[in-house]
């Protein structure tokens, strides 16, 4: 009799727990950059362990670097549909979903990381975040790819005339393309995954990316010159499927939100350090690196002034967003 009583107590205890208490969600987090780049490094060191520890293993973060699940646009669409839980794309790609995100891509808008962080983490970032839920997406934080630099095989870039006629790969981003057209170049949009081969086969003469992507993608093997133009700051965003996030418990929502802020802080530090280290590594690998002085940048800014006017005129609320960006200076 006692044996049956013990078994009954155990059975009651087991059935009293919700099945969800034992459920484990494998959260897919995808991005296009390679393992050596700061996005992946910070995801491994900070985001993944924080989420898994503070959910007691209820959420397991599966990382998919190197564009394993598709390019930025494809994965953003997948997150919106809910077939992938989360992604960390370049914010520039979001302009293809809502043109107001183009404000981040205006040339020579920011002079320092501090200006950028005030804009991203402040009113401008918040206003743009509100555009995402209708797309099925929520942004947990802005991180970075860094300032974009120009590489090519023709020679150092120190003035707009150096870009004349240069066939340069850009993202499928109207502001980027308009900027390089204004500078006399021939912008050629293509996906990042195709870029190395395109440079190798001389389909394009040049490209522009943040230093860590230039180095980790080994563009020094197919490009001779790197000019530190800093023409655009490239942000990233920690995007999560909105419905999936809202369906989590409040405790797990807080864990993901806290993990995103920790990730943002640490990833930015890693990115800035990688900039310094990888510029030196590019030189060691034979690339000729030249700076562009503040005085020289004035000529580039003057040449691209029309891009600002077009943005303010053609994008709904463009002038308001531009004013918010300028407040961070």
Distance between the termini: 79 Å
**Looking at the structure, what is the overall shape?**
globular
Number of strands: 10
Number of helices: 13
Uncertain regions spanning at least 5 consecutive residues: 1-21
Largest sheet: 10 strands, mixed
**Rg to the nearest angstrom?**
23 Å
**What would you call the structural class?**
alpha/beta
Rounded average pLDDT: 92
What sequence of helices (H) and strands (E) makes up the elements? Answer: HEHEHEHHEEHEHEHEEHHEHHH
Name the beta content range: 15-25%
Question: What share of the residues lie within helices?
Answer: 40-55%
What does this structure look like?
By secondary structure, this protein is an alpha/beta fold. Helix content is 45%, strand content 18%. The chain contains 13 helices and 10 strands. It has helices at residues 2-16, 38-54, 72-81, 113-120, 123-129, 174-182, 195-200, 211-216, 242-246, 250-284, 294-303, 305-314, 318-326, and strands spanning 25-30, 59-64, 86-87, 137-152, 167-170, 186-189, 206-210, 225-228, 233-241, 288-291. Strands 1, 2, 3, 4, 5, 6, 7, 8, 9 and 10 form a 10-stranded mixed beta sheet that branches. Helix 12 crosses helix 13.
Quick overview of this protein structure:
The chain is α/β, with parallel strands linked by helices. It has 13 helices and 10 strands.
Protein topology:
Layout: H1 2-16, E1 25-30, H2 38-54, E2 59-64, H3 72-81, E3 86-87, H4 113-120, H5 123-129, E4 137-152, E5 167-170, H6 174-182, E6 186-189, H7 195-200, E7 206-210, H8 211-216, E8 225-228, E9 233-241, H9 242-246, H10 250-284, E10 288-291, H11 294-303, H12 305-314, H13 318-326
Helix pairs in contact: 2-10, 12-13
